[in-house]
Amino acid sequence: LFLYWVMAFITKTIKLVKYWQSGWGVSDLRFCITGVMVILNGLLMAVEINVIRVRRYVFFMNPQKVKPPEDLQDLGVRFLQPFVNLLSKATYWWMNTLIISAHKKPIDLKAIGKLPIAMRAVTNYVCLKDAYEEQKKKVADRPNRTPSIWLAMYRAFGRPILLSSTFRYLADLLGFAGPLCISGIVQRVNETKNGTNNANGDYSTERLKKTNEILKGIKLLKLYAWENIFCRSVEETRMKELSSLKTFALYTSLSIFMNAAIPIAAVLATFVTHAYASGNNLKPAEAFASLSLFHILVTPLFLLSTVVRFAVKAIISVQKLNEFLLSDEIGDDSWRTGEGALTLESCKKHIGAVTDGYFSWGSGLATLSNIDIRIPTGQLTMIVGQVGCGKSSLLLAILGEMQTLEGKVHWSNVNESEPSFEATRSRNRYSVAYAAQKPWLLNATVEENITFGSPFNRQRYKAVTDACSLQPDIDLLPFGDQTEIGERGINLSGGQRQRICVARALYQNTNIVFLDDPFSALDIHLSDHLMQEGILKFLKEDKRTLVLVTHKLQYLTHADWIIAMKDGSVLREGTLKDIQTKDVELYEHWKTLMNRQDQELEKDMEADQTTLERKTLRRAMYSREAKAQMEDEDEEEEEEEDDDDNMSTVMRLRTKMPWKTCWWYLTSGGFFLLFLMIFSKLLKHSVIVAIDYWLATWTSEYNINNTGKADQTFYVAGFSILCGAGIFLCLVTSLTVEWMGLTAAKNLHHNLLNKIILGPIRFFDTTPLGLILNRFSADTNIIDQHIPPTLESLTRSTLLCLSAIGMISYATPVFLVALVPLGVAFYFIQKYFRVASKDLQELDDSTQLPLLCHFSETAEGLTTIRAFRHETRFKQRMLELTDTNNIAYLFLSAANRWLEVRTDYLGACIVLTASITSISGSSNSGLVGLGLLYALTITNYLNWVVRNLADLEVQMGAVKKVNSFLTMESENYEGTMDPSQVPEHWPQEGEIKIHDLCVRYENNLKPVLKHVKAYIKPGQKVGICGRTGSGKSSLSLAFFRMVDIFDGKIVIDGIDISKLPLHTLRSRLSIILQDPILFSGSIRFNLDPECKCTDDRLWEALEIAQLKNMVKSLPGGLDAVVTEGGENFSVGQRQLFCLARAFVRKSSILIMDEATASIDMATENILQKVVMTAFADRTVVTIAHRVSSIVDAGLVLVFSEGILVECDTGPNLLAHKNGLFSTLVMTNK
Fold it and tell me: Among candidates 323, 332, 399, 329, which has minimal Cα distance to 105?
């Protein structure tokens, strides 16, 4: 520690002088604290100098006299050293600057594009913090060590310098040779490990991406029986990851082996060389002085490799973060500050304009070209056009989110004050409120999402919620508008998320409002209400300028100004009358579409309410499952429930090690590797003890036979054999631990993936996606890379402790008497530390989660944040979350220091006890020296045992979480029929018979379908309708056995589907869902992942879906890239791809589950036309989103509360004026 105390003394002195020069004095607390630190660091520096000067680290052959003052001085200051040394541990706080910078950068990025680069801030932050935290953790496991490569080198090379004071000549060179050789090799090994770790990170990211896609599209995968295909894809990536992990494990084993073997080899070389080259007998004082230094050398060697490894990782993380931080920023906000403003005359008419605009997403190619538009002040401007024509891009270009290649965006520089809900505030003419096409919500309450940092005004808040029809939804929430909604609004329906975003834009006190397709997820009633109350009434009364992107052409009559887009350019601009006069063809086309849209018959307004009720039920079900899971974690073994209220019982359960979970993990690695690991570990440490015991016997022979050398050859030979065996066993143990951990990781991930992929659909409805994904990310990472080194360190330190105590007790049996109170003290220390450490670790994790969520939220909603100009508010929130996390980390660090101090003094007590008992104990000097040697090294091992035990307990939580999913019930994929008994082309006709069908989602829930009877002819077009919650979608799921059919049956082409294997049944039917789902890969893969169809068949499907020309224009054609979720295609295009996918399957039965609910009228027309032509000879079952679409169906099934109440053709049902179908048609006109 000498170098550290010198540096600490100098830096603290400089700091004290700076305070003095700034006018601070003894009246300032910080000045006084710094002064005390200068004195303490100077005192400890003086002690280290004195200790080195008198060579206290070396044993002396003869008794040495020490003056009492020097002895007391040495001992007294060393008593304080562990406490003062705590100050050398607090080196974490510099991370704050990087954390804040990593958060600030995404907000200021210039070329944000589609926002993928923003997520790098989160990734790099986590990588950087994890690398440094792991380095700190590894170093903290070694008491009195700081995370410094140079200190590790000093420790490694400093010991041989002290060793040279005991041996001479060749022994000196050999003492230096060990660390000198190992340092270069260790560096090389760690560099290779680092490269392997980078590759492993890439494979892990790819695996998580694929897993995330599977979880998001699990319903489609199950309906199409594609689980195994996608599961194999994940397994292939996992095998690449495991191959990288094997290489990493091999080099880790080599690193551990070299760290453990070099001290043994150095001992062997040094003592054998001394025995034959020095011409002197090996004396106890020389032997044990040297052996003690070799034992001390073990820790620096482990420290050196660990520090180098994680320092390199940290440097790479810093380099990646540096690259991110150096990327271009937006710079000044000139478009909002009035630079390039309109002329005074134009300001009176227009609030903004774009002249000669060419905009790009960063590729250099113009996405928008030749843009010349004006935005009238205080009026409603609508932007319309076909899917993918650039409407949303134009809005983002105006907001400054796209790269401007040419042209200029002009804004009015006139400020005006308007009456508002806050009279003291003036409204800025270029202040903007924005609602994105894809809803973005905070992980906060409904009220906080709507107010979005603005002052709460009850009257305005109520007016906004009424205008957006949110009050009925809020009333259904458990805590009203104070209910916290999940990240990205995962516990709300799409329509509810959209309306909350629109309400946020309406509530803000801005003069300009941008709404990007706010009606896309709303039915006709909600759309009309929002248009009339929210836009035409609320915004008009507020005298605000509105720019609205929409495909609802029926609202064009309300527009004051219209901008028509086509292929990235402005087709027409003006009022509706101007366009009617100047472009008759375009107007007539609009008029046709408007007439069709005016005749839409939509669902009842109960749609979103019932969806919300379902979500609430799912949350309640999940809450019950989560509660049960938490109880299982708190009580590993069954205990009586009455004891849960007893504090002592709770403490007993919390202090228990999860031995059952440990056994699960160890057995997952295979019994053979488990046995080999235990046997090799025991044998290795037995050999190490035997080496030391042999040396003690050898040196004792010197006292017995002071002059003879007859037995020297015998002792050298035995010593060499034992050292060779020890080196070999070091290699075996290092390999077995790593390989057992790798095998366990492989088996656990394989079992988890298969269990999840085969789970029932209700599991995914009631379990949050993030919770499942966390098992494959954080928990799998812990199992892959954290548990094996912790397990190796724990077993090594435990066996070293037991060896030390055993040797001390053997040398001085009286020590066993003192061992009892020392053992009791150690038990209580580890007991309370493990409990506190686990709780504090959970506290640190719980405070880190909001930090990472805030990163994620910021990256997801950058456009919204920057449009509202709330960058400062989000940066301030980041500072608050960082401070909260730092406080938790401070407590965790303090607990670690608490343990360190107590294990230090427990070790000192052991040394004292061993020294006292050796005085009146055995006369065998070799054994006494060996006992004292082990006593001196036990302090570090005690600390390692407790820390590793606490770490293993926390890490075993990941294994327990994984195992909790492995006990989940899977779907029954087997059937009474063998797949070979099913005809190859079944179902060929498409005949469906439903006999007395009863369906429920779970055994403890009420039936959702009750005694349904129906007959569907081959090739018949069937429509299914009913109010929301009546059982329509449940019937479609029943065809695929996605729900529990507890009574009745469905017979398709003469075969009862309950007898079929699930894979066979689902692979023979086709379905188009409401939400179009595409997977990353190619267009070919999305149409035919089974690779069964020819290119001609795929092109035919694309031509039928009217996508052929578009796909041909893409680079690669059928092999063109599809990004994650199909984000590089519009929603309408994605739905048409799903239609082509259904056509490719060649099934005689097609089920459309509200397939037109989220697409525009043009796309719906294409879809309906294709179904009527391409599927003319197939049975089509349509669950109606618009009742008008099934009026002409050959058969209409009308459901109410799970009962089939009407079944006939559309015209016949309409003839019954009092029937439910007629009521639905009349009430939805």
Answer: 329
